[in-house]
Write a structure and sequence with these properties.
Helices cover 37% and strands 13% of the residues. Pfam families: CoA_transf_3 (PF02515).
């Protein structure tokens, strides 16, 4: 535990977390950061991410340090009746049960809304899987690349340079995880007003189609269509950081005044009266040509010179952050966005700060990520199991208690 801190906005809310990999654990980590008591139910070999990537000790990977922070860990074999019996005793303690198991896997474990309501009438169940539960695709597997493909995200790149590709991060997992948080918070507000729980469902493909179409539905929002699909400003191969004399820079004039000033400082005065770039709609329709003009001039100055010129005129611009050197960035350091912490078993590590800032109930690191089963004994004792009972469950292979 860290030193005493404000309780957090979700203090008093208990989350029973039966999620795995990134999407669900990301959502429940956010809820934990906001003050909820998150009980992480893991299989006897732990969440897959415990075994992926850099680590000092088995089961405590770098991803685990972030995705499992502010949680308590209990390890259960839910395929055994004794494991399921323990789960049934934990459910009444939980305001919210969260799982990303597929529907066909949830039912045998009693993780349907009807079964959970029998254990706690006002429970909130949040489920997430690839496709909607009432669809024929309900039990298809859900992994990030698959969802990027099925939601149209991967094909957007083909409109840029002719080749579909996946984003270089698990965007479908994290966007869907954020929507899980939104749905859970809304359900908690509804329950506070009405006393009623509910089933919150977050199909990943649905979520990403909604996410992708915000800007790209375009003229196809109308029936019949009133223009092209896609937002032209972002679907051009020339939309890349601009090379400078010593690196790269992002230059992003946006308003008409920004562009007028930029054409002046960039010595592109001949473009000020060009009808292709006269207003925002014209510019967005001719972004390839506009980017090409800028790419021609940016190598004439250093990155810092471009930043100085733009800031003098209040033109949006930014240097490129190298994430492998994130803690060298002055803004990151000044705002403590990656903070040094001391884990009780893993030693010194860096923890990304929660980005939402709340004046009265700030999000804080209250618990370091637990080892697998670190809280098994505590949680089983809370629901009436004796030390001998717990030892018997360990011997039977029902649970794991971390040393």
């Amino acid at each position: 535990m860290t030193t005493a801190e404000p309780a957090g906005a979700l203090a008093g809310v208990t989350i029973l977390d039966l999620t795995t990999v990134v999407m669900g654990p990301y959502a429940t980590a956010i809820l934990g950061d906001l003050g909820a008591d998150v009980i992480k139910v893991e299989s006897l070999d732990g969440d897959m991410t415990r075994r992926i990537g850099a680590r000092r000790n088995p089961g405590m990977s770098a991803m685990t340090l972030t995705l499992q922070r502010n949680k308590r860990s209990i390890a259960l074999d839910l395929k055994k009746p004794e494991g399921r019996a323990i789960l049934e005793q934990l459910v009444p303690l939980a305001d919210v049960v969260v799982t990303n198991l597929r529907p066909r896997s949830r039912k045998p474990l009693g993780l349907t809304y009807e079964a959970l309501r029998a254990l706690r009438q006002d429970v909130i169940l949040c489920t997430a899987q690839a496709y909607a539960e009432d669809s024929p695709w309900r039990d298809h597997p859900a992994y990030d690349d698959m969802v990027q493909a099925a939601s149209g995200a991967a094909s957007l790149a083909e409109r840029v340079d002719g080749e579909p590709r996946y984003a270089p991060y698990v965007i479908a997992d994290k966007v869907s995880g954020l929507h899980m948080v939104i749905g859970i918070l809304a359900a908690l507000a509804h329950r506070a007003a009405t006393g009623s729980g509910q089933h919150v469902e977050v199909p990943m493909v649905d979520t990403m189609i909604h996410f992708n179409l915000v800007e790209h539905l375009g003229g196809h929002a109308f029936d019949p269509a009133e223009g092209d699909f896609g937002w032209g400003r972002v679907l051009v191969p020339e939309r890349t950081p601009y090379r400078t004399a010593d690196g790269y820079v992002c230059l992003m004039p946006y308003s008409d005044a920004n562009w007028a000033d930029f054409f002046e400082v960039a010595e592109l005065g001949h473009l000020r009266d060009d009808p292709r770039f006269a207003d925002v709609n014209s510019r967005h329709g001719n972004m390839s040509e506009l980017h090409a003009e800028i790419h021609e001039v940016t190598p004439k100055r250093t990155t810092q010179e471009w930043l100085d010129l733009c800031r003098e005129r209040n033109i949006p611009a930014a240097a490129l952050l190298d994430l492998s050197r994130v803690n060298d960035d002055p803004y990151v350091r000044e705002q403590a966005l990656l903070t040094p912490e001391q884990h009780p078993t893993e030693g010194a590590y860096f923890s990304p700060a929660h980005p939402v800032r709340m004046s009265e109930s700030p999000a804080v690191l209250r618990r370091h990520a637990p080892r697998l089963g670190a809280d098994t004994a505590e949680l089983l004792s809370a629901i009436g199991y004796s030390r001998d009972d717990i030892d018997d469950l360990v011997r039977q292979g029902v649970t794991v208690v971390a040393a």
